[in-house]
Amino acid sequence: MDRNDELFERAQRSIPGGVNSPVRAFRSVGGSPRFMQKASGPFMWDVTGKKYIDYILSWGPMILGHGNPEVLRAVHEACDRGLTFGTATEPEILIAEEIRKLVPSIETVRLASSGTEAGMSAIRLACGFTGRSKVIKFEGCYHGHSDRLLVKAGSGMLTFGHPSSAGIPAGVTADTIVLEYNNPQQLEDTFRSCGSEIACVIVEAVGGNMNMVKGSPEFIHAIRDLCTRYGAVMIVDEVMTGFRVALGGAQSVYGVKPDLTMLGKVVGGGMPVSAFGGRRDIMNMVAPLGPVYQAGTLSGNPVAVAAGLATLKLVQAPGFYDRLTSISRRLTEGLTEAARSEGVPFCADYCGGMFGLYFLPKVPTRFSEVTRADTAAFGRWFHHMLDAGCYFAPSTYEAGFVSIAHTDKEISHTIEAAREAFAALKAG
Ligand code: PMP
């Protein structure tokens, strides 16, 4: 029994499942989760001192790699000035201005502390603005764990085989319509039957919670057109994709202008910051300007905002996203080639600094295809890679991430380890 096993046993006595967020628990791949003690650049070290190349990056935020010195300096300086005031502060204006500049569909923006809050608030706002109550979401998309959105919501719940959570009264989700991702016809039919009751459509334009599944341009533009035609609010959830797939997020990749956008992860640079923002006329409905209530003791926290602001400055370096994309490309092409040469059915895809690995013959376009992945093969591959010091997400329903700190050396090591892992799978 190593120290990870010991800590996991001890953790389970005081913490449900030993973890503070379910997908950390290695449930679908088996074994003890690794307890990390430190991280630097593209690496993390667990409590036994074992070093890993990190392809989770705290589930997205650490786009600069861990421990970026400029981010740390900004955080330390902010700490020295005070941890929280619960008042307005100047850095909140600076980050709001930066967000508006980088994501032009956002005219004004409200900060919160988690993607869940951003999603919950955005749909409340859409309902308040339109005076309607129906919300359309798509199967396999996750928008946080607020009650109305926790239906067929991807990753964590899929990993544990529950499409939706217990404990949510049926009435709460009665107005949540769940449709198939990448199916514009079904969306159009739904609008035709009840379009005047639909407050909003919420979507991950590049899905990252059913592994990575890209929205087709027709699908994303159909959402825009139908929302405009029927007076519904289009919400693009960029908690994962914002400043990750491109500087302007997924909306810049598709050339689509949502009415509201949710941000999280990278926007906080590793600290708890999220945001929702968009059209000024809609945002003016939020308290104190309007009747839609939303609040937070630590919203716009100065230490968290300092990390976010420093991160947003650094991702604007010339060529940043070209480099990030080429890292994802090298990794996914190398893994695909390694699997092909070993004769294992596997494919991969990427978008900016985000990627998907699929134990499937072809890249999936919707949730039902993702569910066909060979989870047993993935579990064995995952553990082989973990032993070889490559830390991927412990589920076939999660996307992966690279940072600008990942160099050719780490990518080559990963591809070589993967070649052995695929060979071991083949050998049975
Ligand atoms: N939306 C998306 C697209 C996400 O990926 C996540 C988190 N993985 C959330 C919302 C929820 O964010 P948080 O975990 O910060 O509540």
From TrEMBL:
<dbReference type="InterPro" id="IPR005814">
    <property type="entry name" value="Aminotrans_3"/>
</dbReference>
<dbReference type="InterPro" id="IPR004639">
    <property type="entry name" value="4pyrrol_synth_GluAld_NH2Trfase"/>
</dbReference>
<dbReference type="InterPro" id="IPR049704">
    <property type="entry name" value="Aminotrans_3_PPA_site"/>
</dbReference>
<protein>
    <recommendedName>
        <fullName>Glutamate-1-semialdehyde 2,1-aminomutase</fullName>
        <ecNumber>5.4.3.8</ecNumber>
    </recommendedName>
</protein>
<keyword id="KW-0413">Isomerase</keyword>
<comment type="pathway">
    <text>Porphyrin-containing compound metabolism; protoporphyrin-IX biosynthesis; 5-aminolevulinate from L-glutamyl-tRNA(Glu): step 2/2.</text>
</comment>
<comment type="subunit">
    <text>Homodimer.</text>
</comment>
<keyword id="KW-0627">Porphyrin biosynthesis</keyword>
<dbReference type="InterPro" id="IPR015422">
    <property type="entry name" value="PyrdxlP-dep_Trfase_small"/>
</dbReference>
<keyword id="KW-0963">Cytoplasm</keyword>
<dbReference type="Pfam" id="PF00202">
    <property type="entry name" value="Aminotran_3"/>
</dbReference>
<feature type="modified residue" description="N6-(pyridoxal phosphate)lysine">
    <location>
        <position position="265"/>
    </location>
</feature>
<dbReference type="GO" id="GO:0042286">
    <property type="term" value="F:glutamate-1-semialdehyde 2,1-aminomutase activity"/>
</dbReference>
<dbReference type="InterPro" id="IPR015421">
    <property type="entry name" value="PyrdxlP-dep_Trfase_major"/>
</dbReference>
<keyword id="KW-0663">Pyridoxal phosphate</keyword>
<dbReference type="InterPro" id="IPR015424">
    <property type="entry name" value="PyrdxlP-dep_Trfase"/>
</dbReference>
<comment type="similarity">
    <text>Belongs to the class-III pyridoxal-phosphate-dependent aminotransferase family. HemL subfamily.</text>
</comment>
